[in-house]
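User: My collaborator and I are trying to settle a disagreement about how two of our proteins should look. Neither of us wants to argue from intuition anymore, so we agreed to look at predicted structures for both before our next call. Could you fold the first one, then the second, and keep them clearly separated?

Assistant: That sounds like a sensible way to settle it. I'll keep them separate. The first protein:
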Amino acid sequence: MPLKLATVVAACCALLGGFLVAAPAAAVDVRCSDLELPVTGPLGAPATVHGRLCLPEDPVPKAVQLLVHGGTYNSAYWDLPYDPDRYSYQRDMAKHGYATFAADQLGSGGSSKPFSLPLLLPVLARSMHEVVGHLRAGRVGGTPFEKVVIVGHSVGSGIVAAEASTYQDVDGVILTGVTHLPSVPALTLGVLFGLQPAFADGKLGSVGGDPLYFTTKPGARAGLFYATENADPRVIEADEATKDQVAVPGMGTVAVFGIVLPATKAIRVPVFQAIGEKDILFCGLFALRDCSHAQTLRPAEAPYYRPEAELSTYVLPGAGHSLALHRNASHYREATRDWLRDKVGIAVP
């Protein structure tokens, strides 16, 4: 009786010592470039937003994600300079055919660093609105993007919510690392024991020693932003090495008017809200949110949105606040791509 095909294959593999493997998928080239965009700063002063555009080599997508980092981060959150094949949101998206532009908020990274006192939520939201205009007009990489989805993390999610609700200029909204009822005890302890003035850090460029720019204390990020059992210690080291500052007035107005008094209620496009299961700042003690499953999170968050938002929720198991930098972050990125395709109509060849 002749051997079945599977038996033959198994025998061949045994003869080759188990080294017979499937051919790897063809690699996709990724192009990333940095650029500066003019925006309006506090009190109408001219300012610039620095950002990184990442694209697949070909074809150039017709849609782009505008990425807005959280407080004490900069755009490196989306393209961490450690093991990019595993942890870079931008490069992973490009390998799957998606375009991203990661902006440094005003006051952070390579963007303008105005005095902190007038750097409030309306200014931060307006600057991102102007970046959306640049993306649509083809002033970022020479491609006029037909669709723009704005993506935020933590404090950046509050800015994103304010931008989308105020200007109604995007095709979709992604909010990560946030719910509408944070853990007040955890946030209070984090501010009291985890933050310090940026000028005391020694390496950050706050304006003239501006006392209202703050950053995290050395070693605080692991406890605040990570479920360490699901995090590579070298990722946390890279996070610490690339940390940045946040303007306290801006962070305060974002917390109140972008999150607690929800700007999300005026969003009229599809929304994807993602959180880490073990995010102590929004799912921890007294947070009043069950983050164990997307199915339990959605009923609690849905009242803060209009029906047009068609709210979708996602929980990344075992992840802390900075869910994009945990070992299993690829699952969150894949869920994001599923949502982009199904709810916003952004598919790639």
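The second protein, kept apart from the first:
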Amino acid sequence: MTLQPFEVRPVAGRIGAEILGLDLSDPLSDAVIQAIRQTLVQYKVLFFRDQHELDSEGQIAFAQRFGPITAAHPTLPPLPDRPEVLDLNYGKNHGYANYWHTDVTFIDTPVLGSLLRAVEIPPVGGDTIWANTVTAYDDLPAPLKTLVNSLWAIHSNAYDYTTGATHLSDYFKKYRETFESKVFETRHPVVRVHPESGEKSLVLGGFVRRFQGLSQAESEDLLRTLQSYVTRPENTVRWQWRLGDVAFWDNRATQHYAIADYGDQPRRVQRVTIVGDLPVSLDGQHSTALKGDSAAYNGLLAAVS
């Protein structure tokens, strides 16, 4: 038997584990990378404390061990000179991500996983919460499972301006304009089969606009009901950031929410994402793009090499 190359310390009962004994700036063996991947699939989100030697170049290099890297974002600008890195300077720009979502589900191939590195952290507040969308599915009562097993949802980065916040700041209006500068719309199964574990996971979150075959009002009511199973405290883990921390989550089995409780204090994190695949429904059908082409986003490395 081979010993686990690092210590795994679960953080919550259903999701999340801290990994101890690794410096992500070191050249890690293939065996260690494979062990991290297996642990990621099991715990859904992994936390690495105090990775102070890891810079953006090292973050990219580590992410590449798990698959090809995407561009920073389909519509938002990257970190200057780092087309792979999304620089989220919330303390300066206030483009908060304080809503439950799975990253970029508005394209046909949502990312496999995301790596977030803490660059500047407020003295108090600014935690992030992750939810396990596998156990959320498992918790559904039988009638809801029967419904969602064959249900499809339309996801988009275009906001519905007939609902939601009013009196938006000028910055946030400009942010939305950039976010929607190219509109994507994708049809995803509400229940996908995880390609590595075979687990059933809910594909929902803040980019869902409606369910296929249901009215807008019916869609909104059903989404609230389903999301309540995702976000119930039993399915979540909350991480209190420290400078230099890294979080790595399986985007195929989670949602997350960045808590905006730090006012004008600085909070800056940088994200790198790994190319994903087409979600597959329980009956073997794949997600389909309705608007927008994700090829440029997913083809970053070929484009810049």
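Some points you might bring to the call about the second protein. The radius of gyration is 19 Å. The mean pLDDT is 92.
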